[in-house]
Write a structure and sequence with these properties.
Blueprint lengths: L10 H37 L4 H9 L2 H14 L1
């Protein structure tokens, strides 16, 4: 007599994996964008110190991506 075992994926576990991917990938993307923008902002401020405010604002903008990822993750759960 042969018995087969069927494994099923738990839907709540898949939602948790999706939420983790939403936050994790947006976090990595935001970190990469902040690194690039921060490097350019420091280079610009080395030449002209009055660009500090613009550089600071442009460095903070990618952080909204993580907030959107967090909102998506909370909506998934």
């Amino acid at each position: 007599m042969v018995t087969e075992t069927v494994t099923m994926m738990d839907p709540s576990g898949l939602k948790a994996i999706g939420a983790a991917l939403a936050v994790g990938l947006t976090g990595f993307a935001s970190a990469y964008a902040e690194k690039e923008i921060g490097t350019a902002a420091i280079g610009a401020m080395a030449e002209n110190e009055s660009l500090f405010g613009k550089g600071l604002i442009l460095t903070v903008i990618p952080e909204t991506i993580v907030i959107f990822g967090l909102v998506v993750a909370l909506l998934m759960l």
